Amino acid sequence: MPPILQISGLAKTYSSGFQALKGVDLTIEAGEIFALLGPNGAGKTTLISIVCGLVNRTGGTVTVAGHDISADYRAARALIGLVPQELATERFESVWQTVSFSRGLFGKPKNDAYLEKLLRDLSLWEKRDERIMALSGGMKRRVLIAKALAHEPRLLFLDEPTAGVDVELRRDMWRLIRELRETGVTVILTTHYIEEAEEMADRIGVITHGELILVEEKAALMAKLGRKELILQLCEPLARVPETLARHGLELRDGGNELVYVYDSARERADVAVLLTELAVAGVGIKDLRTTQSSLEDIFVTLVNGERA
Asked: Which residues form the ABC transporter domain (predicted)?
């Protein structure tokens, strides 16, 4: 079975000469949640727009479940649902009308039971007869999601899905995304909320300046690039790190009142135990200690800044 999404050498250069994408390669397997992270202008929306047939590519190939997005456009597009950033809906239609119409666009047979469940899952059932123009921004966002799911796609794109929405909707969406994955739907989301990727994603991709600089399983990325620190608060300040402890790469902070040790989580017990023993031998008294670990946001900032350097 082919991957749900296969992108090879994808490039996009606009008429102005701006290169939005520079030879992007990406493979997405069915049933995963993939988070695409990147600063504004990195190429996230351009990539999604090309896959969804909204923007023409300059070079490269894209297939959805084996269907080329150009040669077999209808089959490829029928497998895709898109929740765009912009709240673009028909203002005078009711919620039920716009969702039903979206389903019909893809030639799907009428299925009121499915649409009812969809609207209930998105807390829209009580609003089904209201016009879009009368809804709040958060409710309009829910309608966009319902429209994207109306034709039962296998691949769902969420482009900044929780931008400007309240915490309740964000949590509802996280729950819905997990439920969709359980039914076999593959979800690709772009987000500025790093905690959203940390909470939801199986794999993380980082794109900047049109280049995909990293694709990694979230757990592996955190283990590989996550910085763990042991911060030791000292009984008495130190002017410098004792020579007998130099091999540990300790750093003095807070005017000599703290020692900071960066360590590998895979060997943390042995390394920390040795360090504490050697500190005692060196006569360094410890008043308190705490540990910290890099978040995905720390890793993202490091990667993007490193690529720019």
From this structure: 5-234
